[in-house]
Specification:
Distance between the termini: 33 Å
Shape: globular
Largest sheet: 4 strands, antiparallel
Strand content: 5-15%
CATH class of the largest domain: Alpha Beta
CATH superfamily of the largest domain: Aspartate Aminotransferase, domain 1
CATH topology of the largest domain: Aspartate Aminotransferase, domain 1
Radius of gyration: 20 Å
CATH architecture of the largest domain: Alpha-Beta Complex
Number of strands: 6
Helix content: 40-55%
Length: about 180
């Protein structure tokens, strides 16, 4: 989900010995309910296939065939071009509202793709507390601590801009800004 003209290279690009397992999913970009992913396992193909057989009771063959057909006909690339453009536009609109509604002390990572912002509040900010308060207003954020095994990032949260812009989104961001100011 990159926003630039060319896709960033992956670690697999530099793998000369087949040591890097490159995995992906269609869940975020195409069909969340399908739960279909893929792997380029390099020299570990035999082990990956064996693990899949041991851990997978059933595979949704119809969903796999549908996605394969979509890929073969070039429709996925067209879909991704439209999705990247929409996400980039949404990221800019959300960023504009965040700049307007959130405290000036907020720091935000400006992604070059994807569908989430990583937001840093002042040191005394509490991502879990904000998460709980936001839920009371039907606003979903992910507290930073859940992204750390050591409990770091207490004053961070992740905010998705995957939902198209609307009055509801605008109101939610305004409310979230007010909740941050009260911390």
């Amino acid at each position: 989900m990159y926003f630039g003209k060319t896709r960033p290279r992956t670690c697999k690009t530099f793998d000369k010995k087949g040591l890097v397992l490159h995995c992906g999913s269609f869940s975020k970009s195409l069909a969340p309910g399908y739960r279909i992913g893929w792997a380029a396992p390099g020299r570990f193909k035999k082990q990956v296939v064996q693990l899949k057989r041991m851990n997978n009771v059933a595979t949704n063959t119809l969903a796999q065939v549908s996605i394969a057909h979509f890929l073969q006909n070039g429709r996925y690339e067209l879909h991704l071009r439209h999705l990247r453009k929409a996400l980039h536009t949404q990221s800019l609109r959300y960023l504009q509202a965040i700049t307007e509604y959130f405290p000036e002390s907020i720091r935000i990572a400006r992604p070059q793709g994807g569908f989430v912002f990583w937001v840093e509040m002042e040191k005394q900010g509490d991502g879990f507390k904000l998460h709980k308060q936001a839920l009371k207003h039907n606003i979903g954020i992910a507290p930073g601590q859940i992204f750390s095994a050591q409990g770091q990032f207490h004053n961070y949260f992740r905010l998705s801009y995957g939902m198209p812009w609307s009055e509801k989104v605008d109101k939610g961001l305004r409310t979230l800004g007010e909740l941050i100011r009260k911390q």
